[in-house]
Every structure is written in structure tokens, then in C-alpha cells.
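Hey Z.,

So I finally got round to the iron/sulfur cluster thing we talked about over coffee. Here's the setup:
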Amino acid sequence: MQTEIFQQKYGKKMTILSKSSIVIESGIILTEKMRRKIQQEEERMRGVETRIQEIRHAVFTEVARMAYEEGPVDKKIEALPYKIIPGETGNFRNDVFLERAIVGERLLMAMGLPYRGAAEPAPVSDGIMEADKPEGYYTPPLINVIKFACNACDEKKVHVTDGCQGCLAHPCMEVCPKGAVSLDRTTGRSIIDQEKCIKCGRCASVCSYNAIIIQERPCAKACGMDAITSDENGKANIDYDKCVSCGQCLVNCPFGAIADKSQIFQTIRAIQSGEKVYAAVAPAFVGQFGPKVTPGKLRAAMKELGFTDVFEVAIGADLCAKQEAEDFLKEVPDELPFMATSCCPAWSVMAKKLFPDHANCISMALTPMTLTARLIKKHNPNAKVVFIGPCAAKKLEAMRRTVRSDVDFVVTFEVA
Ligand code: SF4
Ligand code: SF4
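And the result:
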């Protein structure tokens, strides 16, 4: 029925393959298989509450507490690494000083300040008053590698594990095109000469015991833009000409060595100063917080926190979809071969960087975030608008000069 209405109205054929798999003429939006693969990848790390999330939440909690309390923050912030990492010994790193230094760096970024690194001697509180200015914008880079937290993981390595049975067939030796696999006669197991290995993974694919594994650097593996290389010390390095601030490296680093900036401090200070602060919340909150957090409960909680009111960004998404549909019907196929959406800044920046020849095929419609913020400000001209959503890249969008006057702050969901 939906497909008939679509065809009648727009003269284009639409096929629904599944709940989330729609094909419009030849342009596949998302197949069920692709959706499942993406979901599995996301759940692999995100579903597990680890020490990384614990520290991240502790940092945000303390920054929020500091913002709610009156007075200067310089003395308070110096004490926070000791509060978050107490005691004489470190936890998993076994180095309490290193852990506190990492927390110090995280605190700065949680307050929206730049990453500093270990090379410059300076207390955590140096320049902290910058965070307390009423007008604060995100400054690039948004996503930062905390170098002294980075494990300098191997970029890619093929290992023989204890699972090797030293089998008679030894197909790993047979298939290696570089002669990098040999048999260790003492242990009876295969060994790989890392100098010769070209990481093609053929040996791993033929082992009947799955005894050969390919380890990849988690941050680089997660980055769809190939933006992560190594610096002179083997630590991860982000090429900001390629990075689209999607945050995938951040959620996939098992050492918590990558962090983004936040505006939680500035948001709370704006509320505390008595300004009217409106929350524009992405509909994704339903998936983030689970079925018990109803829109009514969320609204009540946000108002309790001091927000003047709460709007769902779905309203902006409807306006955006309408605009994009109109543009699509007007321009495709006469002026443009296809039209891609513009809602996700990471996606649209990626498309423009990788396919510059098709940059004009990305819709010019304003995003749901900006449209919702404009709507709020139209009725409340002096209000501040905070976008609250799941995606780090929205912070990238809010940095744009054209969007700064619409969206004052962006914060992302954190589930405790
Ligand atoms: S995954 Fe984390 S620890 Fe490993 S190289 Fe990347 S940033 Fe460093
Ligand atoms: S593009 Fe995404 S995954 Fe790659 S470096 Fe940038 S934020 Fe990390």
C-alpha cells in the first residue's frame, strides 16, 4: 500500500525489502544484512560497561558537579584526578600517576578545552577559566588521541596462537605467497616471520583449528576514513584532513585513549546563570535509555535539571524530510543523477571528501538539529538551545559559522 501511494504521488518505484531496508529505484538505502552487520559491530564494544565507561562517567559527573557549584573552578579541578583515581596504586595500568594524568586530560576535554599532551609542563587548571566564558564554541580538533594513554597497538599482525596443532597438512605454509610460515620443529607449531609477512591472512583462512589470528589496531579498524596512522612513537595519529569526527575510533579503543570534547560544563553554567535554555533532544533517546524512559519522564527530568522546556528533534526531521523530498522531485534526474541526504554531518563530510565530484548531489536542506533550533529560537529569540543526541559529529556541525547562532551547545547521550 505504502509503495503504491509513493509511486502514485512521486512517480518513482519504491520497494520495501524489510522494516529497515528500502530500495528507491536503483538507490539502495540500507539492506537488512548491512543493518545487522553494523548493529553487531556497534554492540560488540558498546554493550559492555567497562572501566573506560566508568572513568568517562566519573569525569562527566565531576565536571557537571563543578558547573552546578558556584565559584571558580581552578582549585577544584586540581583535586579531581585524585578523587576519580584514589589511593596509592593504579588500577589496570598499575601506575597511579599516569592514570591521574589521563583523567586530567579527559577533564580538560570534558570542559571543551584543547588536548594538551605530556610535553608541556602545566597544571590541569592552566587556562581553565576559558571554559567559563558564556560564549563557547567547539574548536577543532574534536576527537583527540591522548598520546600517553595510547598502547601503540600493532597496526596489523598475523599471529599463530596456542591452538596450533602442528598438523601434518600444514596448509598455512602451502598458501603463504611469501614463504613467511615455517614449522618450529621443537614445538611442532607454525611460526610466522613478521619481516616477510604481508598480512594477507591466507594462512588464517585455511587453518582448520582457527589457530592463526589477524589482529588489527582497533581504532584504525573502526575508522571508515582510514584517518588513523602512527606517529614517530608508534602511537595512533589522526589525520584531520580525512577525519569526519564520527567518534568510531573513540568507542572502539580498548585503552580509552581517544576522547572528544564536551560542552556539559557550559550548558549547566548557562542554566545556572538564569538564561532560558531549551533542550532539543534527538528521538534516538528511546534506543539509548530503554523503554522505561518515556518522553514524559525525560521531559520531567530535563525540567528538573533546569531546562526551560524540551523539544524532540523529530519535528526538525519532518521539516528536513519534506524539504529533501521536494528537492529530490525537482532535481532528480533532470539536474542531478541522484540525491543523498544531509542530516548526518559525518556522512555528508565523508561523501564530500571521498567523492568530491558528487558533492553537489548531497541535499542542501538544513539538518533536523538546525531546523529544530531555528524553530525554538523563532518563538524564543533570546533562548539558548542545546542539542542532545547520540552522535559526536553533531558537535562538528555546531562548529560551523552558519549554525553557531542556532545551536548554542551540543552534548551527547551517556548511559550510566
Ligand atoms: S586502539 Fe587505542 S591504544 Fe590502540 S593504537 Fe588505537 S588509540 Fe592507541
Ligand atoms: S573519522 Fe571517525 S573513526 Fe576515523 S579518526 Fe575521525 S573520528 Fe576517528
